[in-house]
Queue: 4 jobs
Job 1
Amino acid sequence: MSEPNQNIADLRKSYERAELNEDASHADPMQQFDQWLKEAIAAKVPEPNAMTLATVAGNGRPSTRVVLIKGYDERGMVWYTNYDSRKGQELATNPFAALQFHWVELERVVRIEGQVEKVSAEESDEYFHSRPLDSRIGAWASPQSEVISGRSVLVANAAKYGAKFLLQPPRPPHWGGYRLKPDNWQFWQGRKSRLHDRLRYTQDGAGWLRERLAP
C-alpha cells in the first residue's frame, strides 16, 4: 500500500460542536432545514447554498454534481440548469433524485429525497432575468455536457450570442428550473466517539414521522 493511502486512512476528526435531539428539532423538516441553512449563512460557511444533486440514468447508473439551491418553500427545493444536460436527460427518464448539503465547519449534513418536476416557465423567466448579463449569455453559449473541441468554442459562442442579444438575452428554451418535492429527509449532526445524531423525517399522511437512526 502506498504512503499517501496510509495517510488518508489515518485521518481522524472528533465531532464536538453541537447536538441534535428530538425535543429541540422542528416537527416540520423544512423548518429544520431553514434554521440550519440560516445558521450556515450566519457562520459564513463557504457556499452554504451548494448542494450535491444525485440522479439515475435509465440503465441504473447514478451520477452526481454540485448545483446551487435558488429557492425553497413548502413546495420543495429549486435549482436552475440546462435541460439538455446529463442531469436533465436523466431526470426526464427517472424523475426521482437526491440532494445533499454538507456544512463541514458546522459538522452537519442534510440529505433530501423526492420526485422532481420542472418549475413553471414564469418562474424560470423571472429568475433568468435576475441573473447577471454574462450568466444569461453563458446559458446560450454552453452546450452543457456535450463534447467540445476546446474553450475557444465557449468564447466564440459567448461573443456570437452577446452580439446577437446585446443587453436583453431571452431565456433559452433549453434552460430553466427544477423543483424537488421532498418525501424523505435526514439531518446529521456530528458527535463525539462517532455516536452521531441522525434524525429521519418521512411523510406520514399530512404530516411527518420523525425517527432517530443509528449512525
Job 2
Amino acid sequence: MIDSNLFRSDFIIITGGPGSGKTTLLHEIYKNNYNYIPEVAREIIRAQVSSEGDALPWKNVIKYRDLMLDKSIESFISALTNPQKQPLFFDRGIPDTLAYTQLVNIPITQKLESAARKYTYNKKVFILPPWKDIYQTDSERKQDFEEAVTTYKIMFETYARLGYELIEVPKLCVEERASFIIKNMKSLEF
C-alpha cells in the first residue's frame, strides 16, 4: 500500500521500458505547458562515462542502482519546493529503481524498499508499452528489444505491487499520446 509520508497527488509518473517513447512524449507534454522532471538514469550514465566512473549498468550495477535511487530521491525532494499549481510529470519514479533491481537480479536494500513506499506519487501511473517500430539503441541505451519487453513487465508488476494503478498509453503518434495523457490526467485526484 502507498505510504502517506510524502504522498504527492500532483506528481505524475510516466514510465515503461527503454525506448518506448517516454522522453519524446514528455517533450510534447511540455509543449502543452506542463513541466516535467527528467529521467536520472541518462544523467548518471553521461556523468559516469565522462568521469570514467564505474557506476554504469554494464559495469557496476549495484553502484549504478544506488546512484539512481539517490538521484531519484533528490529529484522528488527538490520538486517538493516547487510551488506549482498544476501537475508535475516525472520521467520515471523511484519505483523504477526497485524494478531495475529486480530486472538485474541484485539484492533489494531496505533503503530502496523504504524509499519506494515513503516517496509516493499520484496513485495512477502512465506506462508506455514496448513498441518495436520506434525502439532504438544508442550510447546510453544498450538493451535489446527483448530486454525492453522484460523491463516493461517488471515495471508493471512493481508499480502494481506498490499499490499504483497503471494506465497503458496507446501506441499513437506523439501528439495523440500527449492528448491521451492530458485528457486522462484531468480525471486524476489531486
Job 3
Amino acid sequence: MLPNRSRTSVLVFLLPPLLLYCAAVLFPILQSLFLSFFSWNGISDMEFVGLDNYVRMLTADDIFWRSFFNALLYLAICLVLQLGGALVVASLLTSLRRGRELIKTLYLLPAVISTVAIAFLFVRIYSIDPVGLLNQLLHWIGLGTFERAWLSDVNTVLAAVSAPEAGGSPGCTCSSSTPR
C-alpha cells in the first residue's frame, strides 16, 4: 500500500490527464450516444425516436454497410501485410548472421520517412500518366491489360491505399475507411 503522501502525489499527477480524457473523449462519446436516440437536424427541436436510427442504419442504409465492409477489408489487408511482413522479417533476422543490421534498417526506414514523402512515392508508383512503377512492371511481364489508374479506380483504390499503410509502418492504424 502506498503511504498517504504518495497517494496524494498520484492523485495530483493523474487527476489533470483523467479530467482532460473525460472532457475530450468520454463526454463526446456519451453525448453522441445520447443524440443517437433523437431525430434532429441541429436547428429544429429534437424528436425522440428511440432505436429507430439504429434499425434504419442496420436494415436500410447501404452506405453504412459499404463503409463497414470497407473497414473490414482495410483491416484484413493491414493484418495480412503486417503479420506476413513481420514473420518474414523475424525469420530473416533469426536466420541471418550477416546483414542483420541492414534488414533492421530497411524494416524501420518507413517509420522514419515522412508520411508525405511516402504518399508522394506511392502516387508515383500507382500513376498511369506518367507511367508509374506498378503499371510499368505489369507491362514488362506481359500483363499490360491490368494497367490502370490504381488510385482513381473504384475497384482498386482501397487495396492501393491500404498497401502502403500496412506494409510501410510498424503500427497499422486501421481506423478509417475509404468509401468505394
Job 4
Amino acid sequence: MPGFALERVAEDRLRASGQLDFATAAQALRIGIEAIGRVGDQVVDLSGVTEGDSAGVAVLVEWVSAAVVAGVGLRYENVPPQMLAIARISDLEDLLLRS
C-alpha cells in the first residue's frame, strides 16, 4: 500500500518521505496543513519522496497557499526531478523553488 509521511525534524523543518502522488494526495494535504499551522516559517525537505506526480505538485501548491493564509513562510528543498518537471510545464516552478 502506498504511503506518505511528514515528520518534524526541527522546530522549523519537516521531512517528507514516501509517495506524493494521486494515491496519497488527500492524506498528504491534511498532514501538511496541520504541520504548517503549528509554528512559524517552515522548510520542507522532499529528499525522501520516492514518487511524485501532478497530484503531488498540487499538494505542494496547496501547502504554500495554507502557509500564506496562516501568515507563515514555506520553502521546499530537494524537490524530486519528476515533480520539478511537472511544475515547470505548469508554470509553477518558481513557486516550488522560491527561497
